[in-house]
Amino acid sequence: MAGRFFPAALMARRNLTRTKMRSLLASLGIVIGVVAIASLGMFGVALQYSFTQNLGNVGNQLTVYPNSGENITELTERDIRTIRRETSPTATVSPVKTRVEPVSYNREDAIRETIYGVEDPAALYEAKEGRVSPFRSGALVGSDVAEEHELHPGSQITVNGTSVRVRAVLEEGDPFSSTNPDNRIIMPATSFSQRGYSEVYVIESTGTQANETAMGIRGALNDREQRVVVQELGSLVDTIEEQFQIINTVLAGIASISLLVAGISILNVMLMSTVERREEIGVLRAVGYQKRDVLKVMLMEATLLGFLGGIAGVILSLGAGLAINHYAVGNAMAVFRLPNAWYVGAAFTFGVLTSIVSGLYPAWKAASEEPVDALRG
Amino acid sequence: MTVIDAQGLVKRYRTGGQTLYALAGIDFALESGEFVSIMGPSGSGKTTLLNILGLLDTPTEGTVLLEGQDVTGLGDSKRTRLRKQTIGFVFQHFYLLPTLTAVENVEVPLLLDSDPKVKKRARALLERLGLGDRLDHKPDELSGGQKQRVAIARSLINSPKVVLADEPTGNLDSETGRQILDEFRRIADEDDVAIVAVTHDDLVNEYVDRTVHLVDGTIGRERKNGG
Ligand SMILES: Nc1ncnc2c1ncn2[C@@H]1O[C@H](COP(=O)(O)OP(=O)(O)O)[C@@H](O)[C@H]1O
Ligand SMILES: [Mg+2]
């Protein structure tokens, strides 16, 4: 029998079953607190995870724009040569021209769309249907454009009154990348009359290299006047991840409030219980229980309440985590990842600790009552 | 052998500027195997005396010797340990733990010691008190007399030198009260335990060695029974 090895636990357990409903309600608070902390934590983790999953590998990309703040509207061939000098030998540098033209699909009314002029699209994109290179005429369309207007290789679109043949439909790109082609129409750079470029994509092999290149480009082009803006996706990713960290902490903080409430309800239950059992506790002291023995029995009750609520909370949290990950990440099993274990573990620990801390005052009160006064009634 | 020797016990309470003497100078000695009753009107200091003899309370003045050792100035922790080793208590309202069975209630004083022999001893005590068939019953499944027997078994679990009983028959009908007093008599004789019982009941005189009468915190006439 467990009571033989842990007699305080036997008494505590029996005492809790004496007022079953009250004990259940008290630990229900802990259950809710644990579930709130664990599932908000896991929700944050799932958000962050699905974000990084969507981001893919954009940390090594740079985009150079003309600085419109200094009234610079386009980048010149000389700028491009400077940029190429600053990049590492293995980097891909893709200057891009843009113009806005009326475009009509399937003989419908024309809409004004941005046309992108890329010299070597094969360096940036792969075809989902059709072929990207050679690319001397016609157009490449992104997957969203193709889907919306039911375009396939061989379809015709009308750009500024001229009929243009679709060469390929491009693979989806990273949603956060500035090279993302999903909503774009791309035509050969040679078909553009203007000489300047509206942006330049640089893809380095690593994020660190991208960062160095960005500094090099800024140093070379923004020396006398601020000619360009260099956008680094890597640092953007870092910023966003930091934001997620803050959101997670705030969420967990909000959830902790529910544990505070749970703690107060346990405090209340234990105080009621010490008042009701005043004489019993007096008898324990009379028959030779030291103050610390009474403290032990009472704290054991609080601990049991905490464990009970904590374990139920962990089980429910796992269920909530399965659902969260199913909907947010698309993979319910993603709940068994380390950061989740951390949140669930922390929630459980906080639940039990809250319970014990809430039991401290009532236990101390019970232990320090003079047995003479308790027994006099 | 003298188990308890109390000299010049005074217990004063100060309440709202007034001083109340619950005990006003009492000498009381107790031999082992002796069964003594304390009688007196309500408020005469019976419970106060019993609590001081049982190391639950400390006197304002006077000394208490327990088996020759001066225990007057001991702190709470030491008094608690001595209670556990040498004293048993029986109360008017039994004060059994309602969540524990009869055997478990008898074990309570030694429960935290995790000594496997305690359970056997608890059973033996209950059997001796005629409760062999009620070992695993909860208090609310027992009659008043049975509850008080469980409480007596609990007071004996630590093989005490003294058992102090505050109105042990106060909540029982006279027939059951007699049986309880009978048990005390037997325990005093067989186990050589000193027993002090506070009671209102004149019946008690048939069972005890002597009766101490308390009036307003002082000892009145004392009557010895037999020899
Ligand atoms: N804690 C206390 N504070 C003040 N007065 C007390 C206290 N305890 C007992 N008394 C008083 O001491 C006197 C003796 O009480 P008690 O020993 O309980 O009497 P008895 O048990 O004979 O009825 C009573 O007048 C009681 O009111
Ligand atoms: Mg009394």
UniProtKB/TrEMBL annotation, chain A:
Domain ABC3 transporter permease C-terminal residue range list: 254-371
Transmembrane residue ranges: 21-47, 250-271, 302-329, 341-361
Keywords on record: Cell membrane, Membrane, Transmembrane, Transmembrane helix
Molecular function as annotated in GO: transmembrane transporter activity
Source domain of life: Archaea
Cellular compartment(s): Cell membrane
Family: Belongs to the ABC-4 integral membrane protein family.
Entry protein name: ABC transporter permease
TrEMBL record, chain B:
This protein's GO CC annotations: membrane protein complex
Domain ABC transporter: 4-227
Recorded GO MF terms: ATP binding; ATP hydrolysis activity; transmembrane transporter activity
Coiled-coil features, chain-numbered ranges: none
Alphabetized PROSITE patterns for the sequence: ABC_TRANSPORTER_1 (PS00211), ABC_TRANSPORTER_2 (PS50893)
Record has ATP-binding as a keyword: yes
Keywords: ATP-binding, Nucleotide-binding, Transport
Pfam families: ABC_tran (PF00005)
InterPro entries for the chain: AAA+_ATPase (IPR003593), ABC_transporter-like_ATP-bd (IPR003439), ABC_transporter-like_CS (IPR017871), MacB-like_ATP-bd (IPR017911), P-loop_NTPase (IPR027417)
Family, as annotated: Belongs to the ABC transporter superfamily.
Name the record gives this protein: ABC transporter ATP-binding protein
Upper classification of the organism: Archaea, Methanobacteriati, Methanobacteriota, Stenosarchaea group, Halobacteria
